[in-house]
Amino acid sequence: MANQPPQDSHDRLSSAGRRDLANAQRLAALGEAIDRKAGIAPKKPRRGKRSNTRKFVISGVVVVGLIAALLGGGYLYAQLKFASIPKLSSAGEVKTLGSQPFNILEIGSDSRAGLTGAEAAMTGAGTAASPGGQRSDVVKIMHVDPIHQTIATLSIPRDTMMTLLKNQATYGNYNRINVNFGSGSALVAQTITANLGIPIAHTIAVSFGGLVNAASAIGGVRMYFPYPALDTQSGLRIRTAGCQTVDTTMALALARSRHYEWFENGHWNNDVTSDYGRIYRQNEFIKAFIARAKTLWNPLTINNLLSALPQGISLDSNFTLNDLIALAYRFHGINPNAMTYYTLPVVGGHSTLGDVLFVNQPAAQEALVKIFGSQLLRPTNPPPNTTGATPMPPVITVPTPVHVTSSTAHHTTSKPAKPAAPVTTTTVEGDQWFDPVPC
């Protein structure tokens, strides 16, 4: 059950806090130097408003908090904590070039590492529904454009069929994308590039424990639930409607929910969209996490977050502390609600594995070109279609980019308008009226 909203702190900065603020200013100066080297002129702060170097954004629930902590803590302390974060193989990743757009693969692992015994039991650890090993329950690719300061996130449903590059003797030539993570995150990145032509520059992996620890460290996130909600399989239970704090195990239960129910008109209703609905709710949770992380000023909270992050988060070996600082500086003013979210167009089907999803062409290629533009590569191992064939995707002309500013979208604390008819899934994400939103 969600806790009561925490009280906001307005305590004055201590001497330690002032030192942390000075360190944050030095980090901002470092970010300016990085931008100057890349040929980007720094923006001048508006008069009459205090410059806030903690107003940043990078998608991915935990990395958002990581950057907040890095900007709020001392640089040497941040280096120490950054060094303690486990590193992933960067095999198959491409190098970033100056200020050109690049892509970050975000993997949500179903690993229970970092959870307490009770928390692990709540997620079904040790049951037939949760066999050993680890799979990528969440696969998102964040397309970052540093020059235009835009971020678009593509979600790939976990049951999407891909052409495998390895382990065919175990899994066959074609299988769900989430089986690759058992052989390492690098194989997931390489499979995405080979099947869809998306070049990956960085990889982030977050376990169940990483999400719980990060949400707890920042005091939870604020979400508006238009109706009471539950998911008996993930453990979600929101007893009352309204704006409330979601933290620890409830944050994890919300992010995992594929069997979401809401109480409306005197009875419980089922969200039949399964993975699609879960993707919607994950994206709304990310927005709420960003909004909360941007307010971190308390040095104690920042220290808690830095201490919690190594427990359940991994970064690829190409990621450096200065990379994160540069991203934080460049995106310090973006509105999380202006970030665009997409789901890879797929179509349901059946295979020897059971019910699965197949990449839906030409809609999928049109969406990929819209998101990644001329950066998109021609696949070397296209995914199978419903007939078992693996045709190359159609050639789609790259459109002229239209860059959206942060003033074009926002959420209120009221629930989304209920549609007159059921809403079908489209390429661009859209709120379902019964789903929670940031508040």
Structural commentary:
The protein has one domain: LCP protein (Aminopeptidase, 3-Layer(aba) Sandwich). 31% of the residues lie in helices and 19% in strands. With 439 residues, it is of the alpha+beta class. A hairpin with a 4-residue loop joins strand 3 (136-145) and strand 4 (150-155). It has helices at residues 15-37, 61-72, 75-83, 117-122, 168-171, 185-196, 208-217, 248-256, 275-293, 299-308, 321-330, 363-372; strands spanning 87-88, 102-109, 136-145, 150-155, 161-163, 174-176, 202-206, 221-225, 229-231, 236-238, 242-246, 261-264, 267-270, 313-316, 340-343, 346-351, 354-359, 437-438. The chain starts with 14 loop residues before the first helix and ends with a strand.
On the 0 to 100 scale, the average pLDDT is 75
**Which class best fits the helix and strand makeup?**
alpha+beta
Q: What is the name of the CATH topology?
A: Aminopeptidase
Fourth-tier CATH superfamily name: LCP protein
Distance between the amino and carboxyl termini: 17 Å
Overall 3D geometry?
A: globular
Please tally the helical runs, counting DSSP H or I stretches of 4 or more residues: 12
Please tally the β strands and state the result: 18
Q: Write down the domain tally.
A: 1
Strand content: 15-25%
Main sheet, how many strands, which sense, barrel?
7 strands, mixed
